[in-house]
Each structure stands twice: as structure tokens, then as C-alpha cells.
Write a structure and sequence with these properties.
With 294 residues, the chain is of the alpha+beta class. It has two domains: 6-106, Phosphorylase Kinase, domain 1 (2-Layer Sandwich); 109-240, D-amino Acid Aminotransferase, Chain A, domain 1 (2-Layer Sandwich), CATH 3.30.470. Helices cover 30% and strands 26% of the residues. The protein contains seven helices and 17 strands. Strands 8, 9, 12, 13, 14, 15, 16 and 17 form an eight-stranded antiparallel beta sheet that branches. A five-stranded antiparallel beta sheet has the order 1-2-3-7-6. α4 (170-177) crosses α5 (179-201). The radius of gyration is 19 Å and the shape is globular. 37% of the residues are buried. It is an enzyme of class 6 (ligase). One of its GO terms (biological process) is 'de novo' IMP biosynthetic process.
Length: 294
């Protein structure tokens, strides 16, 4: 699957109408279904950066396809198929597209990002330092950065297609989507997280936190978007785990580290990423796929 060519857009390779272009994913209309194409674009601090990262889209899509299969016994998902040979003339280059798409059911998206945290780190740690809480969860005093929770906690966010999603409490989520649906999504999210956490631990990887999106088809809750990828989850190599430090993540950490070392103001378009940063980021994406799937 290793590629040297980065794909910034699938528009040249898909003949179906483009419905939506996100930071990384593109949504095409197949009539009854969607085609989701995953590009090699990379974003940080709400900016899409250049150049794109070779193989990133292949890795993200392959990991999601893998995890949707692994979790199908736990709950239904939106995947119809990932077989490029079924697409016919919908794609113009099968070799380029074969690992970076999935055909999915059309679901009504629930506008809540369902976040599960197994460890106190990142934005959760910053909340805890200030308030002793994370999204309204009152936590014990004296927790250390990166410490594992006794039980995973559910910390939802309200979806915002422009800018950052908004962290909310479970009580606020109930106001937005109803108590019954909130309880169902919390239970399903924690169930999925605990399944994947155990799977990862057996392969020397810590799944610190993750996020899900869900949709409805005829009133049934299904799993949509992506799951357990480096863009939706915080993975740590067990050998790097420690308290009280910034653990080097198995994702686009080289990009964030580089950008933080520059004088970029995060309000104007950044300069292109150096080649060594792009290569190291590409290597990390491939590595997490190899460690989890192969």
C-alpha cells in the first residue's frame, strides 16, 4: 500500500457529484448511497496544510474499514462495501482509489461528537487543572496527567462544521437530543471504546481517548464516519507511557510539534511543511496500521 504520491483531492478520480468537501474527507452522491473518499490532506489548528501526506488517506480508510468489521457484532454501521471493482466507471483510477474509499448508507447524522476518555490528558487535563472537572464530570483530587481513569468517562461535544466542536455536559446533551438517546449513545460509545482498548493493549498500544459519530436510519442508531483512526483517536505506544509529560502520539504529532516551534500566528495561512516532517508523519500513519492490523 506504500505510495509516494499524495492525493489532495479525489475529484479527478470520481465521476459522481461532489456533495461535501471536508478537511480530509469528500462526500459523493451515488443516489441510494454515499461514496466517502479519504484524501491525504492534513489539518492542524483548524487549517488544512500543504503538502498532503502520502498514504494518510489509505491508512485512515483501511483502519476504519478494519474497525467497522471488528465491531459489527457490537452494533451496525454505515458501510455497504469497500470493493473498488463494484464501482465501475464511478472511478477513473482504481489503483489510486482502491484503499481510500467506502460506499456507505445514507444516515441522518446525530449532531453530537461522542468522546470517550480513558486517560486524563489533552483538553481533558486542561479542564481538570482549572476546574477539577471534565465536561461536568467531577473528578477525584490529585489525578496526575496521563493517569488512567478507574472507568472511562463520556465527554460529548456539540458538532460544529465550522471551527471547533463545543464541549458540553451530558445534561446539555440531553437537552439537545433527549435523555433516552443520550443514554444510548453513552453506553454504545463506552462499549466500543472498551472493546478497542483491549484489542490495542494486546498489541502494545494504549488507546487514550477516541470520538465517534452516530446516525439514524429508520430510527436505528448506526455507527458512521470513521472509527479508531489516528485522526479520531489518541494512540500511545506502551513503551512511551509515563505520567506528567507530553506523550509523543502515534499520529500527526510531528506536524503539531513543528508548527508550535515556528512563529506562525495560527491566523494566517501557514508556510508549506518541510519534507522531513511530511515523511515522518507518513511513517507514523503507516506504523499504526501495521501494528494494529498486520
Amino acid at each position: 500500500m506504500v505510495s509516494t504520491k499524495a492525493i489532495s483531492s479525489a475529484e479527478s478520480y470520481v465521476t459522481a457529484p461532489l456533495l461535501y468537501k471536508g478537511k480530509v474527507r469528500e462526500l459523493y452522491d451515488l443516489g441510494e448511497h454515499y461514496l466517502i473518499a479519504v484524501t491525504d490532506r492534513i489539518s492542524a489548528f483548524d487549517w488544512v496544510l500543504s503538502p498532503a501526506v502520502p498514504d494518510k488517506g489509505n491508512v485512515l480508510n483501511s483502519l476504519s474499514a478494519f474497525w467497522f468489521k471488528q465491531t459489527a457484532h457490537l452494533m451496525p454501521n454505515h458501510v455497504v462495501h469497500t470493493d473498488v471493482d463494484q464501482l465501475g466507471d464511478i472511478v477513473t483510477d482504481r489503483e489510486i482509489m482502491k484503499d481510500r474509499f467506502m460506499v456507505t448508507k445514507k444516515a441522518e447524522r446525530i449532531d453530537i461528537e461522542c468522546v470517550v476518555r480513558g486517560y486524563i490528558t489533552g483538553g481533558g487535563w486542561r479542564q481538570y487543572e482549572k476546574t477539577g472537572e471534565v465536561n461536568g464530570h467531577k473528578l477525584p483530587e490529585g489525578l496526575r496527567k496521563n493517569e488512567r481513569f478507574a472507568k472511562p468517562i463520556f465527554t460529548p461535544a456539540a458538532k460544529n462544521d465550522v471551527g471547533h466542536d463545543e464541549d458540553i455536559s451530558i445534561e446539555r446533551m440531553k437537552e439537545l437530543v433527549g435523555a433516552e438517546l443520550t443514554d444510548q449513545l453513552e453506553a454504545k460509545s463506552i462499549m466500543l471504546y472498551e472493546f478497542a482498548r483491549q484489542f490495542c493493549e494486546e498489541r502494545g498500544i494504549i488507546l487514550a481517548d477516541t470520538k465517534f459519530e452516530f446516525g439514524l436510519i429508520d430510527g436505528e442508531i448506526i455507527l458512521i464516519d470513521e472509527i479508531f483512526t489516528p485522526d479520531s483517536s489518541r494512540f500511545w505506544a506502551k513503551e512511551n507511557y509515563a505520567y506528567d509529560i507530553e506523550i509523543d502520539g502515534m499520529d500527526k504529532e510531528p506536524v503539531r510539534t513543528y508548527l508550535s516551534s515556528t512563529d506562525w500566528d495560527k491566523n494566517s495561512e501557514p508556510d508549506p511543511l518541510p519534507l522531513d516532517v511530511v515523511e515522518e508523519t507518513s511513517r507514523r500513519y503507516r506504523n499504526i496500521l501495521d501494528r494494529l492490523v498486520k
